[in-house]
Amino acid sequence: MNIKKSNLYLRDILKLKVDLTSQIEKSLKLLEENQNHPSLHNKSIKCKRADNLFSIRVNKQYRIMYFK
């Protein structure tokens, strides 16, 4: 899977703590390599505006939402 990071993402990631940033990058790399990896807990999100919205787990506190 190819991941395109938005300008908003690139701006906001600089505001996060270094350890969280590294966890996010690790999760995104894993998503690129294998979107069905069990540690990602990849889930479909039901939404009226978009039918291709998903989320993956970064850690117990944070998830990343993305469009497929």
Automatic annotation (TrEMBL):
Entry-linked InterPro entries: RelE/ParE_toxin_dom_sf (IPR035093)
SUPFAM superfamilies per the UniProt record, alphabetical: RelE-like
Name of the protein: Type II toxin-antitoxin system RelE/ParE family toxin
